[in-house]
C-alpha cells in the first residue's frame, strides 16, 4: 500500500528502496513561493542509521512488511544476544548492532518486541518503561536534598540521572525512549 506525503507523521513506518524506516522527526514546510513539502528524519531498522529525506507533493512510499512478536531475552553469548519465542520456544540470535541501544534496557528474562522484516529478525524494542535496580551510584552527603541529580548505573548497564535521595539497591522506573528516571518503585 502506498503512503502519500500528506499521510506522513512521526512514528510511522515506511519503506524506501526496499529498506524499512521509522520517521523520527517530521516537519511540514510551506515556503512563500512554490509547493509545500515535508522534511523528515528517518531511522533505518536494518542498521540504525538516521538520514534526512524530503518528500514533495505526489511522492509516495510503501508500507513495509513488518511483523512484531513478543520474545523473551535469554542471555548475551558474547557475539549475539539470544531471544526465545514464548509460543514455540524457538531461539533467535541478534547481533549487538541489530539490537542497538535497546540492550541498555533489557535484562535476562525480560519480554521484548522483536521486529521481523520479510520474516527475518531485524531489531528489538524494549518496553516503554522498565523497572531496574541501581547497582552503582555515589553516596549521599548532608545537604544533598535540594533537587540535584547524580549518575546511577542500573543492572542492565544503562546510566541515568537520579535524585540524590536514591541509593544502591533501590528499584527505579525509567523511560526507555528518553533514558530518563521516572520514579522510585515501592
From TrEMBL:
Q: Which GO terms describe its cellular component?
A: cytosol
Give the GO terms filed under biological process for this record.
Answer: peptide biosynthetic process
Concerning CDD domains, the annotation shows: S1_EF-P_repeat_1, S1_EF-P_repeat_2
Task: Please verify whether the record's keywords include Cytoplasm.
Answer: yes
Q: Which domain of life is it from?
A: Bacteria
Q: Do you know which SMART domains this protein is assigned to?
A: EFP, Elong-fact-P_C
Q: What is this protein called?
A: Elongation factor P
Named in its record, the pathway it takes part in is: Protein biosynthesis; polypeptide chain elongation
Identify the stretch annotated as signal peptide in this record: none
Query: For the Elongation factor P C-terminal domain, which residue ranges apply?
Result: 130-184
Q: Where is the Translation elongation factor P/YeiP central domain?
A: 68-122
Q: Which Pfam families match?
A: EFP, EFP_N, Elong-fact-P_C
Output the NCBIfam families linked to this UniProt entry: efp (TIGR00038), PRK00529.1 (NF001810)
Name the family.
Belongs to the elongation factor P family.
The function of this protein is: Involved in peptide bond synthesis. Stimulates efficient translation and peptide-bond synthesis on native or reconstituted 70S ribosomes in vitro. Probably functions indirectly by altering the affinity of the ribosome for aminoacyl-tRNA, thus increasing their reactivity as acceptors for peptidyl transferase.
| GO molecular function annotations of the record | translation elongation factor activity
Q: Would the keyword Cytoplasm turn up in this protein's UniProt record?
A: yes
Record's subcellular location: Cytoplasm
Amino acid at each position: 500500500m502506498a503512503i502519500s506525503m500528506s499521510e506522513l507523521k512521526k512514528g510511522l513506518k515506511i519503506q524506501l528502496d526496499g529498506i524499512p524506516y521509522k520517521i523520527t522527526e517530521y516537519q511540514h514546510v510551506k515556503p512563500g513561493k512554490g509547493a509545500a513539502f515535508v522534511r523528515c528524519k528517518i531511522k533505518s531498522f536494518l542498521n540504525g542509521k538516521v538520514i534526512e529525506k524530503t518528500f514533495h507533493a505526489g511522492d509516495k512510499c510503501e508500507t513495509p512488511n513488518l511483523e512484531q512478536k513478543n520474545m523473551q531475552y535469554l542471555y548475551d553469548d558474547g557475539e549475539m544476544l539470544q531471544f526465545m519465542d514464548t509460543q514455540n520456544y524457538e531461539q533467535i540470535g541478534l547481533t549487538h548492532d541489530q539490537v542497538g541501544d535497546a540492550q541498555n534496557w533489557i535484562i535476562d528474562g525480560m519480554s521484548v518486541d522483536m521486529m521481523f522484516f520479510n520474516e527475518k529478525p531485524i531489531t528489538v524494542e524494549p518496553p516503554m518503561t522498565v523497572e531496574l535496580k541501581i547497582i552503582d551510584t555515589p553516596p549521599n552527603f548532608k545537604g544533598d536534598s535540594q533537587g540535584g541529580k547524580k549518575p546511577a548505573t542500573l543492572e542492565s548497564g544503562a546510566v541515568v540521572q537520579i535524585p540524590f535521595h536514591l541509593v544502591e539497591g533501590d528499584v527505579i522506573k525509567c523511560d526507555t525512549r528518553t533514558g530518563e528516571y521516572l520514579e522510585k518503585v515501592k
